[in-house]
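Data card: per-record layout.
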Amino acid sequence: MKKIGIITFHKAINYGAVWQTYALSTYLQTKGFKVEVIDYFPKFLQKYHYQLPKKPISFVIRLLNIFQFNRFVKRKLPISANKFHSSEELKKNCPVYDYYICGSDQVWSSRITGNEWKPYFLDFVPNNLPKISYAASMGDNHLPEENKEYIKQQLAKFKKISVREPFAKSELETIGIKESEIVLDPTLLLDKAHYEEAGLSQSKEDYILIIDLSGSQLLKETALKIKKETGLQIINISGSYRSYAKNKLAISPVDWLSYIKNAKYVCINSFHGLVFSIIFNKNFFCIEQENNKNNRALHLLENLNLNNRYVRNIDDININESIDYKSVNVKLDLLKDKSFDFLGKALNL
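The structure for this 349-residue chain is written out next.
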């Protein structure tokens, strides 16, 4: 049995981060590989995600969040036995696999990784072993000028390169990397049955779900408009308090996904909230963020001919307009086939 090592943001206190790790590792396991997520936990992740706030209520919520996520990682992800906290530790004791994959998530975003970015370009892996990127993302951040030559040298050693958005492909082309492919986020490699096997719960009640990452006034207006027309309660799983909703704070990744699965309507400005709304065929509205066009969400919506679900003003809302998921799922299957084909060629399937 061939072994694959994945390096990504698996310990981020972020629902999308852990579910994309789950999705990629699960998909590869279904193809007959032994998969491990390299337990790399650098300082920037520790500082950003595990720093406890001083305010008592926020302190308790964050502590519960950390507990919920750590339990999910231990129970649901195939984590490597060895732990690494720096590039030096990875190089000194490089874990041995037949293939190495970096991605998905914003592992190539200099804004996030700061000075600890090199392992996400697999710099610790011997050059005679196959290196692959799957759906690596830069967010909206350009490659730092001072790192471009090094990144070009590293990526030249990769067997196959794929990215999640057109922006990343264009950035790589500026440094002479012409052969990258655009593939789906790993969460879209699995269908809803795979996620239900993770232990999702059922709900007998209908509700409006919100995932609001920025305190959006437009998202609030959208949810309240749907509430006025339907009489349904609003449930918030954004991770931050919203005064107009019933707040579910410090919930587990499994509960977070269960809320999406069971919702009657979904209002989101979260990319992975959008992804799972599509996977579970929800009646959703993707809300434009102020000062942020959310390019990855727009790219996905355009590919699935769902542009009309992108809300730029309150007049765009029509709760009686249903989504033709039969057509959407056909288009999604075609995109999946392209992503499956990339991994098949990269892994000699």
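Known properties of this structure: The chain has a mean pLDDT of 95. The chain has two domains: 3-190+334-346, 201-317.

See the next section for split statistics.
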